[in-house]
Every structure is written in C-alpha cells, then in structure tokens.
Amino acid sequence: MAAIRAMRYFRFQPVDVNGLAAVLDILDGFDSWTYTLRYPAEYIEVTRFADAKSIIAAKGPTRRCKIAAKSNGGRRAAFNATEANFISIEYYSREVDPDAVIDKIQKALSLRPLQRVIDSTFVAHGFDDNGKKYAGEVRVFLEALRIKVETGEYFEPGSVPEKVKARIDSSDMFIAIVTPQDNHTWITQETLYADAKGKQPFVLVDREVPYKPGMLGDSEYIPFTAGCISETFVKIIQGMNKLSGGLS
Predict the structure, then answer these.
(1) Rounded to a whole number, what is the distance in angstroms from the first to the last CA of the chain?
(2) Rounded to an integer, what distance in angstroms lies between the CA atom of residue 179 and that of residue 174?
(3) What is the tens place of the pLDDT at every residue in 12-67?
(4) Which of 10, 187, 188, 192 has CB atoms 3.0–4.6 Å from 87's, for a disulfide?
(5) Nearest to 121 by CA among 160, 84, 171, 80
(6) Alpha helices by DSSP H, the chain
(7) Is the pTM of this model over 0.85?
(8) Which DSSP symbol is given to 227?
(9) 44 phi and psi, to 5 degrees?
(10) Measured distance CA(216)–CA(180) in Å, rounded
(11) pLDDT tens profile 156-195
C-alpha cells in the first residue's frame, strides 16, 4: 500500500484535557510525541502527556494546543488547535486509512467541518512550451470557476524567492505542473513551501516525466497523458470539494 496523507480543517473550538486524551486514544502506536500548549505569553513543548496535564493543572486550561506524533515506520499525525480560526488534523500512513482515523477524531470531539472558500490559486509550472501551454489550460479552467490564478512569472536560482512566497501565502490553494524538463528543483521547492504552509498541493505530473516517489515530498500526485492536462480537472474539483469541507 502506498503512503497516503490526509488533512482536514474544522471550526475552532476549545479542547480540554479530556479531549486531548480522546485524541491520544485514537492516535495509538506512535513512537515519539510532542505536546504544545499555548498561553498568552509563551509556548510550552513537552514530550509526555503526563507533563502536559501537570502544566494545565498549574497554569490553567488553554484554548490552544497541538499534538504531533511520529513512528519509526514513517507514520505521522498532527492535531493542531493553535491557530485562531480553525483546527487541522493531518495523518500520514501506509498501514491504515488516514481518513478513517480523522473521522474517529471528528466524532470523538464533535468537530464541525470548516467550509473553506477557495477564491485563488498559485500555479507553479515550467517556462518551456509545454509548461506554459498546460498552465494556460489550467488557468482557463480555474477562471471559469471564478478562481483567480497567480504564477511566479520567472525563475530564480536558490531558495524560493520572497515574491513567490508572498503569492503562495496569499493563495487559497496551490497547483504544481511537472513537465519533461532538465531541472525540477524549483518546482519541488515551491511545492514543499506550499505544503509547509498548509496549502495541500495538487501536483499534476506528465506521464512522460521519469517521476520518482518522494521527489515532491509526501504530496500525492495526479498523472496525465502528454497533451491532455484536462484529464486532471475532475480530480482537481474533487480535491477542491474536500478542501472546502464538501463531498469528495
């Protein structure tokens, strides 16, 4: 079974010690844990739930908390209630269905899905003829859905330029188009940056590219036949529905 990553967003609500314990009961079998508790003037990180309980007992309850877990086998999970407007849950595994795990947490805490509005996207693409052609077709498709499209316009060596970072930050979603070209490094950098910002990248890969799993981090990808990027459009809509809290 290939590794699958799932991430969902829910409306924010306070989570108490009992709620954290319920999350732990569901996220079993991990080897290392990090508990983050946020108070007005500080973030406190501990690696044992008993320590987290002691801090809450001493300092009082906190509305902002996070659980992050990793296993030696490569599984990862994160329950994040530190943001102001939402709770996010991420699960990455080869052994179990991540969506089933998230469903259990949602039910245990009575979480309500967050209806995200998707008005804009950043499209990373090569600036060869194929990259420009595919990006143009994706732009026409998304603008027909009333979604504003941004691109990087030019390539700069090194880390992701500040201009591109700002455009990715301000976009509601991120799409990368991988085409046959000599160097995919900068698309990889932009995709990993978008993933770190919680954009859940859509990676569209031309089947003629010698794609290597892991080249673009843990992101799942959508393959398409050379010249037929429209094959990805249904998958993109399904993914957008999932991001916005609808049916996928």
Answers:
(1) 21
(2) 16
(3) 888 888 999 999 999 988 999 999 999 988 889 999 999 999 999 999 888 889 99
(4) 10
(5) 171
(6) 17-26, 49-59, 98-109, 129-144, 162-170, 185-196, 233-243
(7) no
(8) T
(9) -120, 125
(10) 15
(11) 555 667 888 888 888 889 999 998 876 777 788 888 888 8
